[in-house]
């Protein structure tokens, strides 16, 4: 038995066949034509499915999971990724289901990309064996997902745990989501680089102004770069503390490109969390790095499929 997995983001569309232990049996990938019309985007997905379905293990396909940049609507099976303009309420589940080599009876399980990361970390990573967890992706945006009572908690539309759009600054800057002072606007990699530049930091010649470059400067002792990470950590801590207080958690897992800064992010994050999570049941919740950086979206899509319930048995046609 294998699970099919798709991981669709703004730069790549990846697919895999994954065994029940979380090992990738086969993998395929195409660039995301993010600025092309809807059918060109679907063509890239189809090309990935074509390649996977030519692998011998496809004959053992049992379920399929799709991780996609959001927002997603799991009930409707549609996606409207902010960073893929050609898809708005696009019926991705039905289009994948309609692939000519898709076995009868399979309805793909759809999850947001951060929820997929959460499923992967709960299955094989830093949240393994934990009943209640928040898993976060801190990158060009900030997303998250929840495990509650030992199960992935996605909410009715599949967007539960989207911590990036908790407001932590009531008078903060407007966010593209329509809110104000959101965690994402203060703590994403984009926000870290912008804050450092506005405060007078400049990247080394020939180096792009990225959060990674700011982290390098912070490690080298640049006070402005350190302050940019400190502010991001404060915003993250406020959102995390609110989530811990609301649902009670055993662990918080932080992944994504910004988390690669290591203690440049985690040290101030843990310090600020101590200032915000002060109630007894919320205090001292561990904050740890994600363990599954490589192919976490694919592993998470497979995990979501695995926990979506048994595949319906197709009815025989009436005679």
Automatic annotation (TrEMBL):
Gene3D superfamilies: 3.30.420.40. InterPro entries: ATPase_NBD (IPR043129), ROK (IPR000600), ROK_cs (IPR049874). PROSITE patterns: ROK. It comes from the Bacteria. Belongs to the ROK (NagC/XylR) family. This is ROK family transcriptional regulator. It comes from Streptomyces roseolilacinus.
């Amino acid at each position: 038995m294998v699970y099919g997995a798709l991981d669709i983001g703004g730069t790549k569309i990846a697919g895999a066949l994954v065994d029940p232990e979380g090992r990738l049996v086969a993998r395929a990938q195409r660039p995301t034509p993010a600025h092309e019309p809807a059918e060109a985007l679907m063509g890239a997905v189809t090309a990935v499915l074509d390649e996977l379905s030519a692998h011998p293990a496809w004959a053992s396909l049992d379920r399929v999971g799709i991780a996609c940049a959001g927002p997603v609507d799991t009930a409707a099976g549609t996606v409207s990724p902010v960073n893929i303009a050609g898809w708005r309420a696009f019926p991705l589940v039905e289009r994948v289901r309609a692939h000519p080599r898709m076995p009868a009876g399979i309805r793909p399980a759809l999850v947001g990309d951060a929820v997929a990361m959460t499923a992967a970390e709960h299955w094989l990573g830093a949240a393994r064996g934990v009943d209640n967890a928040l898993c976060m992706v801190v990158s060009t945006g900030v997303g998250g997902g929840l495990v509650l009572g030992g199960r992935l908690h996605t909410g009715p539309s599949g967007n539960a745990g989207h911590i990036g759009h908790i407001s932590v600054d009531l008078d903060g800057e407007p966010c593209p989501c329509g809110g104000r002072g959101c965690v994402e606007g203060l703590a994403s990699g984009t926000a870290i680089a912008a804050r450092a530049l506005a405060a007078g930091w400049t990247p080394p010649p020939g180096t792009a102004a990225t959060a990674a470059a700011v982290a390098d400067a912070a490690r080298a002792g640049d006070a402005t770069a350190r302050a940019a990470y400190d502010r991001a950590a404060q915003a993250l801590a406020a959102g995390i503390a609110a989530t811990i207080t609301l649902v009670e958690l055993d662990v918080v897992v932080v992944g994504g490109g910004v988390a690669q800064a290591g203690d440049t992010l985690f040290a101030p994050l843990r310090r600020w969390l101590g200032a915000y999570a002060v109630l007894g049941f919320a205090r001292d919740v561990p904050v740890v790095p994600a363990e599954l950086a490589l192919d976490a979206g694919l592993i998470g899509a497979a995990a979501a499929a695995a926990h979506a319930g048994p595949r319906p048995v197709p009815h025989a046609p009436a005679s």
